[in-house]
What we know:
By secondary structure, the chain is mostly helical. It has 5 helices and no strands. It starts with a helix and ends with a helix.
Amino acid sequence: MRLERAVDALNRAALAAACMLTVCVFVVAALGVIFRYVIQHSLTWADETASYIFIWLVFLGAAAEVWNDGHPSVRFVADRLPASARRVAAILANLAIAVWGGVLLVYGIKAVLLESPESWSSLPGISLQIPYAAIPVAGALIVIFGLTKIVVRR
Length: 154
């Protein structure tokens, strides 16, 4: 199905971005340590930058795991239901996930707009909208993944 392939490609893109961000966090944190303890000259931006990259990493990873069924779940009750009721439970669960993604999307956009005049403390020219944008981006992905699972994976 074309929709499933498109959403799967979107998931792979989110995972690829998360992988690249993992490398970036490692490099920035390593530079911070090397400069602080070896060169004896701290990079003022390293800790904050690593934290903001990590925020993006967490939100993209969380969204991707919705599509990959990677989040922990308690299946004690659902596994004991008849097949038709299990399908209904799966639809309701994915609908709840999509609603949560919608909440992240709406309130994430509000947070991004609220942060428009603010900038990083260590890099004054960089807007705080960049780390906050991870929230609505992940929310949109969660909505897409949750709703697509309802349509495709019944």
